[in-house]
Write a structure and sequence with these properties.
Elements: H1 9-23, H2 30-39, H3 48-58, H4 61-66, H5 69-72, H6 80-99, H7 110-121, E1 128-134, E2 140-148, H8 158-168, E3 172-178, H9 188-203, E4 207-215, E5 218-221
Parallel strand pairs: 3-4
Antiparallel strand pairs: 1-2, 1-3, 4-5
Length: 228
């Protein structure tokens, strides 16, 4: 009897791994990088069609690994192990970005702060509000999600924001929220709420440095726009 033929994708996997190790991730297309992640969940299957299906469904690599687990599971072939592989990749990337801003003066590393906020929130399908709490040296001492809402609205209560800042001993804050629409342009409601938080904080000695709105298509700083 002749030995069984190796599956056609066996050589492909070997070549892909070699190219990744020799030339780095930039040498791989988005679907190939997704294949590398899916290898862990599907050790004996051709995952190229699945990688391409994910990109077609969600639009890009960042959108794929940022998608909610339930939405990923809707794609044929995406079992629990495959979903976990993609979400682990996202978690690792966010951990690296977060470690670059924690316990550092964030105003001196603003680009890294924006990159972290966009990566962690910019691709979300519902609005979320997070608050960065700073000490007197503008060092980040806490990073908390305060509210999660719908596709276009998240309630934020200025008194609760200031109360939490005082509990943590923070002297300044940065507000961050996402626009699932992809457009980071602040709405009138965003502007009014920001000013309410600013005024409530000022009365209690808590400074509002900025309000960042992050989205797939970029970000907006209300301070840079002259709105606060």
């Amino acid at each position: 009897m002749s030995p069984p033929e190796k599956p056609h994708y066996a050589g492909h996997r070997r070549r892909l791994r070699a190219r990744f190790l020799e030339a780095g991730a930039d040498a791989l297309a988005d679907y190939e990088l997704l294949e590398m992640l899916l290898f862990m969940a599907h050790p004996r299957a051709d995952v190229k069609p699945l990688a391409k299906a994910l990109l077609q469904r969600f639009g890009g690599f960042a959108e794929v690994i940022s998608a909610e687990p339930a939405r990923l599971a809707e794609v044929k072939g995406m079992g629990a192990a495959a979903v976990a592989a993609l979400k682990t990749a996202q978690a690792a990337a966010l951990r690296l970005l977060r470690d670059e801003v924690m316990e550092r003066p964030i105003l001196a590393s603003w680009d890294k702060v924006v990159a972290y906020c966009r990566a962690s929130m910019g691709y979300g399908s519902t609005e979320r509000f997070r608050i960065l709490f700073l000490n007197r040296k503008n060092v980040l001492i806490a990073d908390e999600i305060q509210q999660q809402g719908t596709v276009d609205h998240t309630p934020l209560y200025p008194r609760e924001v200031v109360k939490r800042a005082l509990e943590l001993g923070a002297s300044a804050i940065v507000l961050v929220h996402n626009h699932p629409s992809g457009d980071p342009t602040p709405s009138q409601a965003d502007i009014e709420m920001t000013r309410q938080v600013r005024d409530a904080g000022k009365a209690m000695g808590v400074t509002l440095h900025d309000h960042l709105i992050v989205a797939r298509d970029g970000y907006a700083s209300l301070k840079s726009l002259g709105l606060i």
